[in-house]
Request: fold
Amino acid sequence: MSEKKISEIQKEYKETSELLLPDFIEEYINDGRPGVSKIIGMAQKRMEKLRIERERIERLKEYEKQYWPEFDYIGGIDEVGRGPLAGPVVTACVVLPKDCSILYINDSKKLSASKREELYEIIMKEAVSVGIGVCSEQRIDEINILQATYEAMRQAISECSVEPQVLLNDAVTIPEVKIQQVPIIKGDAKSISIGAASIIAKVTRDRMMVEYDSIYPEYHFASNKGYGSAEHIEALKKYGPCPIHRRSFIGNFV
Reply:
């Protein structure tokens, strides 16, 4: 039995990183006190969840593993913001290292805002290269949302410090791109590279919309991110469009 109080062991558990969980369990598993046994049970459940998550991440590398033997730089591409009434469409191209082991990457829509922010920082730190493309609401009105999305995707590719040798795209084939492309339906939930790109694009655009909220607070862009929420549509009808509204999207409301 450890000489430490159960409260001290509880505090130690909360401060133990995922990497050190096995050592923590080994140290206290034979303590014998019911309170410590409960903490060990929590640690073991956490370890099991980690095992399941690592297996999920390995499955998420299925497409990358098809190309990694031949290519070093595989880019995942995704977009955010095709549907909103206001703001730009944002894309990202992310090249991850072959030994990438970042956990919890997924379709950005399946993650909480705080988890996206956390993963954004990790991806930006560990990625071989990240490129971001932005196409403004004015450009969307000029050439339509699909062509604007393609334009932003080409920009994201060009912004990469390392040019991808293969592109894994979320569902689309980008015109005017000579790099080999692999369109994957619902790719942000099937490819770790596309999932990473969806997180980078989502966080980038969300931050932009929060900034716009400080300029145009009546539209509540910080909460609705430019999408057609009830409060956004009500404000649009009351105040009319602001400079970042997509004129080609709002005809039914003004």
